[in-house]
Known about the structure:
four-stranded parallel sheet
Amino acid sequence: MSRILAFDSGIGGLGVVARLRTLLPAVPIDYLADTAVFPYGEQPDALLRERIVRLLGHAITRLKPDVVVIACNTASTLALDSLRAAYAVPFVGCVPPIKWAADHTRTGTIGLLATRATVRRPYLHDLQMRFAPACTLLAHGARHLADMGEAAFRQIPPDPERLKAELAGLFGQPGGEHIDVVGIGCTHYTFVLDAMRTLGPADVTWLDPAPAVARQAARMLATCSFPLRETIPARAEQVLFTAMPADLDALLPGLDQMGYDASNIGFFDEDGAETPRKMTAP
C-alpha cells in the first residue's frame, strides 16, 4: 500500500487532505505540521528554506512516504526546488492560482489573498509574467487570515469586522473594485472561504487550489512504482506537530472528521531522532 505525507505550518494543509480522502480513500496519509514556527508567512526566507529542507528530510526517513504534498504556499514557493534537488521522493506543491484566475476573469483584474511572505516573493511576479501578463494583479498579504483559519478549524468562526478589514486590504486598493476573481494563496484560508464569500463583494469568483493539488497528488501517486513497499511494516496514520498545540483538545473533533485517531497524534522531534515522542490526546 502506498502512503502520502502532507506538510504545512499548521492545519491549513488538512483542506488538501480532505480532498485526498475523497480521491484516494484507501491511501494512508500522514500529516506533519511545523507548529513550532507558525505562521510561516512571518518568518525570514533563509531560515524557512533551511528548516523546511531539513525537517522534510527527517520526515521522509521516518515516515517513508511515496509522495510528499507540500500543502503550504509559502513553503512551496520558497523551498520546492530545494526539496526536489535534495530528495528522490516526488513532491507536489501548492502555488497561488494565478493562471486559473487569469483564465476566469472577465474584467482583467484578478486578486490574490496570501501571506505577506508569498506576496513579497519574486515567485509571485514570475507567475504573473508567465500566466497572466495581460491581467492586473492586486495582492494583499493578510497577516490574520491564517490565524482565523486555525480558529475556524477549531469551530471558532471568524470575527466579521476583522475579516472585513483583511478583505478591505485587497478590495480597497486602487482598482480593487474591478476584481472579479480572487485566488486563495494560503491553504489555511480554505477554512474561512465561506465567510469570505459572504462578506466579500458580490459576483466575485473565489478559487481554492486544494482540489487541484489533491488531483495532482493522485496522478503522481498513480505513476509511482513501489518495489520495496511490501517490506515496510504497515502502521497507522499519524498527525505530528513540531510543537504540541496547547489547545489540542479543540483540534480533536476536526482531526476526527479527517479520519485521524486521537491515539496517533504526537510530537515530531526535530533533531532527527529515530522515533518521535508520542503524546496521546486526552
